[in-house]
Amino acid sequence: MIGTQIKPDYSDKIAEFVKNGGEIKQAVNTNKAEFNYCNADTVLQSAERPNSHQNHILRTRAEKQGLKSYKPVAACKSCGTSERSVKSNICLECDRRRARAKTGLSLKNLEAVGHYLLDKGESVEFTNGGQKYVLKVEVA
Ligand SMILES: [Zn+2]
């Protein structure tokens, strides 16, 4: 405890403060970090925007770890899952659903194609809009 008796070499201002009933107390560490504070509203706004600052941080972190997907601040608004591609920042589930809707293939059928290509050790070449593509199975 620091008493109210102070040495004469303290400034007059402090002496006056104590004389007038002021108390000098030791600083208390509250373990609160209030700088760089991210409130609930910011998180909510961030959830609406996949390119938000918070999501960008998470995406960059995942990229540095060599991950292909990352978990954004909030789940996807349209499908409710939370996994985004690090490369394109597209929701993976939405992307899968889009692919399924386009081909009319279910995920099960697509997986069957994957197993087929893997078993045969083959890849399929095809052309679309004058551009050559290759369909192959890779180890994740
Ligand atoms: Zn989605």
Account of the protein in words:
With 140 residues, the protein is an alpha+beta fold. It folds into 2 domains: 38-104, no CATH class; 105-140, no CATH class. It contains 5 helices and 4 strands, in the order αααββααββ. A hairpin with a 2-residue loop joins strand 3 and strand 4. The mean pLDDT is 80. The structure holds zinc ion (ZN).
For the largest sheet, list the strands in their spatial order: 1-2
User: How many structural domains?
Assistant: 2
How much of the sequence lies in strands comes to 5-15%
Helix content: 25-40%
Determine the number of helices (DSSP H or I, runs of at least 4 residues). Answer: 5
User: Low-confidence parts, pLDDT < 50 over ≥5 residues?
Assistant: none
End-to-end C-alpha gap:
62 Å
Listed once per kind, the bound small molecules are: zinc ion
Rg computed from alpha carbons, rounded to a whole number of angstroms: 30 Å
Summarize the structure.
The chain has 140 residues and is of the alpha+beta class.
Keywords:
140 residues, alpha+beta, 2 domains, two-stranded antiparallel ribbon, 5 helices, binds zinc ion
Produce the secondary structure layout.
Layout (H helix, E strand, L loop, with lengths): L11 H8 L20 H9 L4 H12 L4 E2 L13 E2 L6 H12 L3 H14 L3 E5 L2 E5 L5
Zinc ion binds next to helix 4.
